[in-house]
Amino acid sequence: MKLTLKVWRQANATAQGEIKTYPLDGVSPDMSFLEMLDLLNEQLVTQGEEPVAFDHDCREGICGMCSLMINGEAHGPEVTTTCQLHMRSFSDGDTITIEPWRADPFPVIKDLVVDRSAFDRIIQSGGFISANTGSAPEANSVPAPRDKAMRAFNVATCIGCGACVAACPNGSASLFLGAKITHLGELPQGQPERWSRVVDMVGQHDHEGFGGCTNIGECASACPKEIPLDVISQLNKDLRTAMKQGL
Amino acid sequence: MAASGAAFIGFVLGHMYGNLKAFGGQEKFNEYAHHLRELGEPLLPYEGFIWIMRVGLLAALIVHVVCAVVLARRAGQARTVKYAVKKNKGSSLSSRTMRWGGATLLLFIIWHLVNFTFGKVNVQTGETGAAAGDPYSLLVDTFDVWWMTIIYLVAMVALAFHLHHGTWSALQTLGLTNTASSRQRAKTAGWVLAVVVAGGFSAVPLSVLLGIIEK
Amino acid sequence: MAGSTLHDGLTPLNGPSNQISDDAQGFYVLGENIVDPVAPAGPIKDRWTTRKFENRLVNPANRRKLDIIIVGTGLAGGAAAATLGEAGYNVKSFCYQDSPRRAHSIAAQGGINAAKNYKEDGDSTFRLFYDTVKGGDYRARENNVYRLAEVSANIIDQCVAQGVPFAREYGGLLDNRSFGGVQVSRTFYARGQTGQQLLIGAYQAMERQVAAGTVEQFTRHEMLELIVVDGKARGIVTRDMVTGAIETHLADVVVLASGGYGNVFYLSTNAMGSNVTAAWRAHRKGAYMANPCYTQIHPTCIPVTGSHQSKLTLMSESLRNDGRIWVPKNVADCEKDPREIPEEDRDYFLERIYPSFGNLVPRDIASRAAKYMCDEGRGVGPQVAEIGPDGEQRMVRRGVYLDFADAIARLGKHGVEEKYDNLLDMYARITGENPYETPMRIYPAVHYVMGGLWVDYHLQSNIEGLFVTGEANFSDHGANRLGASALMQGLADGYFVLPNTIRDYLADGPFEKVAADHPEVVAAQRAVEERVSKFLAIQGTRSVESYHKELGAIMWEYCGMERTEEGLKLAISKIRELRADFWTNVKVLGASDNLNQDLEKAGRVADFLELGELMCVDALNRRESCGGHFRGESQTEDGEALRHDEEFAYVAAWEWGGDSNEGGQPVLHKEDLIYTAIEMKQRSYK
């Protein structure tokens, strides 16, 4: 396959970036999207041009490190992560525009690499259950209803990649936020801190500069783990309950 | 946003009910309009109910607009560098046009109030303050003008879009859509309200234009 | 389980090793034997309890004066950071990823073992201990393994309390499954994402401590040097991967939880960034590297499709429960559509060679058998280039069929979907083939390394003040790791073992502050700066990636599933040549003062080029087959692994002896494995 790549190049956080066009030949449909970028980088190194920086690590769709806006879609045209997207989803002769996640709370570090530490800070603000090591009771002493445990698991599959923010026209991280609120809020162990958690996490989310949610739904469609929109409803419900309690 | 929006949903339903009285003829319609002014008497003074509604709606409007502006500003600040290419794949057109649709509706409401409430402008005769006590005639005179009907129909399309997303969005914001089925119901409710309200409102001007409703 | 006898743990059941063969002669120097200086004694079941009591305590008021550096934020590092932070120490946590949550522990699928005996099926601490030692082919240290089994139950309690959403039964209690061929159900799981859920639990606990101010988090920071002052590990030198700043971090103690080095093979199931650099830098500063040749190769991975391949993806071996593995009988059929090959022309080789276990033979046997079939030319799938045993490049098909046709006929398509849909979907997504219609293709891939830095019972290396946890150390899995045991070890070390052993070391602290201009500190920092500049200054013609690929091909061919004296010697000479070429001809573009992924990679590959040679030397020396290490010269008549306990029941702890291209030779220190609770036995799967 022969492709034309339009790639965002930006030397560092403060530099002015631009889209550069690179022709790329010899792409196999069996390559993953990132292997296609490896090929581009190998070609760039040969030509003496600095390779394109992009985030990636596990390359099996679970670590959440890879990102990329591919032809205007977060993680590209399939419901999966960029590392699990394969070139057979494209055709010979295609032009592919590759951009970094665009959100001010995710500043560009270089080329396609952005800083997502805002997500860590949101977790720090309350995305946990306070259980010091050694203080835990016997695991089966508190049964958790299976349906609630299942829902908790389904939303705990969030990989923190940031595609929800990238896809949201408002630049909101509500899906990420809602997934954590729902995960911990559905479990009996998460109840003691449930109401303060939602208030603190929403506060941090807003403080980081993410946009507000207007329930458009682009986030859930972009989510490689198919986290449903109902976590945002859950987030709102918990927030309302917390506010009733004067938190 | 959700609470003020919910107030508007209640209002447009009531308003539409009143408008449909036009099919009952001049007398019924004018009687209804008069009845609204006497509603709540003697507990409330004459036009008391209407004024409570007006104040309430104005407050809701202010809340709604302020929230919208805040949200729009936050969204703008959250992405100051735009994408060169951006596709939408999971959202309805209505959800993405809430801000433009909202602005359109705001402009329309201002004209609508001038037209029927405060100015009572008869676009056929040019007189203002016309037809005190006879809103029915004003209504028929207005919608006999084709371009007035077009303005209203365009506004009703905007309203339909706004209700389609707004209904579901309000339920979601109120935290009432925690399951796949409730989410589906909320979306259905959005469709139903959009079709019923916009359809109901449009029925009157269309009927006037087509001569089904006449003086 | 027949023949599992209990011993009191008070009397040695075997004597010290006595090695007769010396295949690696000329490649190493024999050093002094070593022993675990803090090995506990007494009845095995009391050893950890006694040790926890004996280990000294640190006054809570003193804890905040003690600085702990932890490198790595996977299960072992994240759990340790959280726990030590909660205890009130000053923790500095480092990871190369953009967030601690991305550490590669996240990719573990199957589950985590714990001796809870919730199924009342005869499980116990002792049985988990026994299974782990046996599964490791009697090359693990008994004390450490028993402790691991002992704390396993606490791990589950801890994780549940943190909100890890384990699978549950209808009554709301925790579910278990049997995993990896063991006969009891002791594996706790969260669908196929157990590693992810456990890691998120540890990550959240750690982030809580970041908020509390006890843990300071340094993401996108890579450790490039260990600082040793007066024989004690006192800090690290890191590179800020965003700004390029070379920074010095000093502390009272350093913990390495930096994971495994499977990426020395280039293609593995590891994350792209997984590397040996932190451990290797410590090794070069004197820490022993133990059993580096013990590598686990997983039989059911998706095969290589071409030279562009950057990583391999594992599919749960549960697929072997219902799938049948075969290759064509005739080489001529290898290119055909498998559905057109008639039954009589198919060779179900595992069922043929191992009639009683069939497709369920252990990982190493299944892996090797697949390799032999492809070596014979009966592999399937695309031809890929590789280095042959003679050192020449050749084209070979590396894949065997894993066929679900019979299972679909027996269980129906729906039945197969219910059990395996997520795995089959993943296969379809990666290969573009529909596994319900055409047989899947699989091939073994490097998955985990049992070797790592040598540690004592306290998880302290031979450098004082340097502790090593998780996959980065060598201690618990012997020559082969059982399924669902990696997560157990990482969390055991992080939550329960290290916090109880490190305090005995820290009780002597706070140690005298090391000045930022101390000669050792300055030297370490300068060494890193010089190395970084050197990479950029070489300005050669070959990309870093190409060196890594070539090293991987050498390692895979000669130090992979089957190792021979001849092959290993050839590999050593090839690696030496490649390393020499690397240092004169590598091409690294860009600058050192900002994000430069090629520069990062150059450092990692440079270390792999040294580690690879040591792995070959270790494999060459160990003329026996045990667990994941198979020496062609040491097999039974039936082609099964043959151990030589009298010669090799020891841990091979290697000391850095300088670069071999400059005349250096590694020094071998042997730690004899003396069993007191379990007797060594030869395994058989026929």
Please characterize this protein's 3D structure.
Chain A is α+β, with helices and mostly antiparallel strands and 247 residues long. Chain A folds into two domains: 3-110, Beta-grasp domain (Ubiquitin-like (UB roll)); 116-244, Orthogonal Bundle (Fumarate Reductase Iron-sulfur Protein, Chain B, domain 2). Chain A has helices spanning 33-47, 117-124, 146-156, 163-167, 174-185, 194-207, 218-222, 230-244, and strands at residues 3-9, 18-24, 69-70, 73-74, 95-99, 108-110, 113-114. Chain B has one domain (2-209): 3 helical TM bundles of succinate and fumarate reductases (Up-down Bundle). Chain B is 72% helix and 0% strand. Chain B starts with a helix and ends in a 6-residue tail after the last helix. The model of chain B has no long low-confidence stretch (mean pLDDT 93). The radius of gyration of chain C is 24 Å and the shape is globular. At the A-C interface, helix 1, helix 2 and helix 3 of A face helix 3, helix 5, helix 6, helix 10 and helix 11 of C.
| Alpha plus pi helix count of chain C | 16
* Shape summary of chain B: globular
Give me the number of helical elements of chain B: 8
The major beta sheet of chain B can be summarized as: none
Largest interface: A-C, 77 and 82 residues
- In the predicted model, the low-confidence regions of chain C spanning at least 5 consecutive residues are none
Number of domains of chain B: 1
CATH topology of chain B: 3 helical TM bundles of succinate and fumarate reductases
Structural class of chain B: mainly alpha
| CATH class descriptor of the domain at 298-447 in chain C | Alpha Beta
Oligomer: heterotrimer
What average pLDDT do the residues of chain B reach? Answer: 93
SSE inventory with pairings:
The complex is a heterotrimer of chains A (247), B (215) and C (686).
Chain A: E1 3-9, E2 18-24, H1 33-47, E3 69-70, E4 73-74, E5 95-99, E6 108-110, E7 113-114, H2 117-124, H3 146-156, H4 163-167, H5 174-185, H6 194-207, H7 218-222, H8 230-244
Parallel strand pairs in A: 1-5
Antiparallel strand pairs in A: 1-2, 3-4, 3-5, 6-7
Chain B: H1 2-20, H2 26-38, H3 48-78, H4 93-96, H5 98-117, H6 135-143, H7 146-173, H8 180-209
Helix pairs in contact in B: 1-3, 1-7, 1-8, 5-7, 6-8, 7-8
Chain C: E1 29-30, H1 47-54, H2 60-63, E2 67-71, H3 75-87, E3 90-94, E4 112-113, H4 125-135, H5 142-162, E5 187-188, H6 194-212, E6 215-218, E7 221-229, E8 232-240, E9 246-250, E10 253-256, H7 277-284, E11 289-290, E12 295-301, E13 324-328, E14 346-347, H8 349-353, H9 363-375, E15 383-387, E16 393-397, E17 400-403, H10 405-431, E18 440-449, E19 452-453, E20 466-468, H11 486-506, H12 519-538, E21 542-543, H13 544-558, H14 565-585, E22 586-587, H15 597-621, H16 645-648, E23 650-655, E24 667-672
